[in-house]
Structure prediction request, 71 residues.
Amino acid sequence: MLRYFVAWNFWLAFALVLMLAKGDARVAPTFYTVFGVGWIRPELFWAVVAVALAAAAGCARAWRRTLPRAA
Prediction:
């Protein structure tokens, strides 16, 4: 269905934008910034990216299951 395809692309784009928008805010202790706003711990940042990629994979799998099967 179209909703799975749209959700798949949304989560994938969200994860890619997060990874591209990441910047280093501090070195010791290490903190990241996203779009130059606030500070976020690296563990939390990568956990959010992993969850977004997992959601994208789940939506992609659901979308593939809705495609008609070849005879």
Observations:
- The first helix runs from residue 2 to 21.
